[in-house]
Specification:
- InterPro entries: MFS_dom, MFS_STP/MST-like_plant, MFS_sugar_transport-like, MFS_trans_sf, STP/PLT_plant, Sugar/inositol_transpt, Sugar_transporter_CS.
- Keywords: Membrane, Signal, Sugar transport, Symport, Transmembrane, Transmembrane helix, Transport.
- The protein is mainly α.
- Helices cover about 75% and strands about 0% of the residues.
- It has helices at about 5, 10-20, 25-35, 40-45, 45-55, 70-95, 100-115, 120-150, 155-160, 160-180, 190-195, 200-210, 215-220, 225-235, 240-255, 260-265, 270-285, 290-300, 305-335, 335-360, 375-390, 395-405, 410-440, 445-460, 475-480.
- Helix 10 (about 160-180) packs antiparallel against helix 11.
- The protein is globular.
């Protein structure tokens, strides 16, 4: 369906501008893994890793070449900072609105990109990455909420998934630039890779300046007349009185909750808290960020040359972006649960194949010699199929589902927990990945495959379908769920035909 039919023309340019600025996190995901595989970067900042990488001794274990906690801190420090920022961004999103939080995130990201590009010492890299993390935390807190509140409920899934699509496009762009900049003869290509993060930062600043704030946020701050004007603009019709009434009622209900953080711990919000923690945690335990962060390092570890590893990462990045389009096209047709379960099964099968392939050829010492072309191609194809499974399931749905299931009174607090959990798991996995690879060898993929099985069981038993349900009526899915209904007791005014 043409986008103009989904979003009124009056808001189309602003909505597309919002979508166009969201690939800052994706760019950063892709750029860090590529940069850490560039020899000039390693030689300047991590000489001990560079020496291990070029050690031709037959006793050198390939699995352990990049096992450096300082090197992984360069990648993971961003996510620790994003974890901290997401907590503060919850308050900022509620008090000052979604737009201002986006602008603040863009400014922090811009400063961090500049510091990384001109880095001369490791501490400059780490501080720059932390500033990038503060920016990512602000964006991840505000953008999914913004999109869920602005999008028509019939197409909320597809439009919200553009968040993930732009992340994957940013990731692919980063992989392409890493491949190109690595060819620079002066050895300074890594500076250009890191510095180009300023581009999405500038986009998010300029884009958010021209965006309207959401009606939900305006009502939450007592600006009901402005909320009505924006709702008319967003929906493309003056017939918004019924929806405005629902939004005002939801806001009044939310104001009765004086302490949203404490409310999340009560029995009535047990399903919301569970999903806010479980879904982002499981999203990281798929092992996808191992591929995202360290694809060049991983490919280099299993025998690909420097340029070949960056090329392989570029292929997987392209697969990621293309497969996300499948999810956008199908999420509002087949539903969230179907994509979750199908994608999980696909990832599990691919992880088992990758485990067998790497285990057979590399053994425990990770020194296979020269890989046959057909064998290397088979590994890359398997990883691409795995990436595709993630890209149309846990990738976008991991952001979509939490952003649409929280009631307004706890939405900012719950989204903050969602982002914080995502960031702390991302930090933990990225920080310990090289050590896990060194000690677990190819068994690392078995670990993630086991996590995928647990995830699928969780989705099957505990996640209700949220396709096509207006965000103000989301309480119905919990009241009708065979497990969660014993926790969620509907208020009298909510017992109606809609549920």
């Amino acid at each position: 369906m043409p986008l103009e039919k989904i979003i009124p023309e009056s808001l189309l340019s602003e909505f597309l501008l919002l979508v166009s600025l969201l690939h800052l996190e994706g760019y950063d995901l892709g750029i860090s893994g590529g940069v850490t595989s560039m020899d000039p970067f390693l030689k300047k900042f991590f000489p001990e890793v560079y020496e291990k990488e070029h050690n031709e001794s037959p006793n050198q274990n390939q699995y352990c070449k990049f096992n450096s906690q300082v090197l992984t801190l360069f990648t993971s420090s961003l996510y620790l900072a994003a974890f901290v920022a997401s907590v503060g961004a919850s308050t900022a999103t509620r008090i000052f609105g979604r737009r201002l939080t986006m602008i603040s995130g863009g400014l922090l990201f811009l400063v961090g990109a500049g510091l990384n590009a001109f880095a001369e010492h490791v501490w400059m890299l780490i501080v720059g990455r932390m500033l990038l993390g503060f920016g990512v935390g602000c964006a991840n807190q505000s953008v999914p909420i913004y999109v869920s509140e602005v999008a028509p409920y019939k197409y909320r899934g597809a439009l919200n998934m553009m968040f993930q699509l732009l992340i994957t496009i940013g990731l692919f762009v980063a992989n392409v630039l890493n491949y190109l900049f690595n060819k620079m003869e002066n050895g300074e290509g890594w500076r250009y890779s890191l510095g180009c993060a300023a581009v999405p930062a500038i986009m998010i600043i300029l884009g958010a300046i021209f965006l309207p704030d959401t009606p939900n946020s305006l009502i939450e701050r007592g600006e009901e007349e402005e909320a009505k004007r924006q709702l008319i603009k967003i929906r493309g019709t003056t017939n918004v009185d019924e929806e405005l009434k629902d939004l005002i009622a939801a806001s009044e209900s939310s104001k009765a909750v004086k302490h949203p953080w404490a409310s999340l711990l009560t029995r009535a919000y047990r399903p919301h808290l569970t999903m806010a923690i479980a879904i982002p945690a499981f999203q990281q335990l798929t092992g996808m960020n191992v591929i995202t962060f360290y694809a060049p390092v991983l490919f280099k570890t299993i025998g690909f040359g420097a340029n070949a590893s960056l090329m392989s990462a570029m292929i997987t990045g392209g697969t990621n972006a293309a497969a996300t389009l499948v999810s956008i096209a199908t999420v509002d047709k087949f539903g969230r649960r179907t994509l979750f379960l199908q994608g999980g099964a696909q990832m599990f099968l691919c992880q088992m194949f990758i485990t067998a392939a790497i285990g057979y050829k590399f053994g425990l010492n990770g020194n296979p010699g020269v890989l046959p072309t057909w064998y290397a191609t088979a590994v890359v194809v398997a990883i691409c199929v795995y990436v595709a499974g993630f890209a149309w399931s846990w990738g976008p749905l991991g952001w979509l589902v939490p952003s649409e299931i929280f009631p307004l009174e706890v939405r900012s607090a719950a989204q903050s927990i969602n982002v914080s959990t995502n960031m702390i798991f991302t930090f933990s996995i990225s920080q310990i990945f090289t050590a896990m690879l060194c000690h677990m060898k190819f068994g690392l993929f078995i670990f993630f495959a086991f996590c995928v099985v647990v995830m699928n069981v969780f989705i099957y038993k505990f996640l209700p379908e949220t396709k096509g349900i207006p965000i103000e009526e989301m309480h119905c899915v919990w009241q009708n769920h065979p497990f969660w209904k014993k926790f969620v007791k509907p208020a009298k005014k909510q017992v109606d035909a809609n549920c």
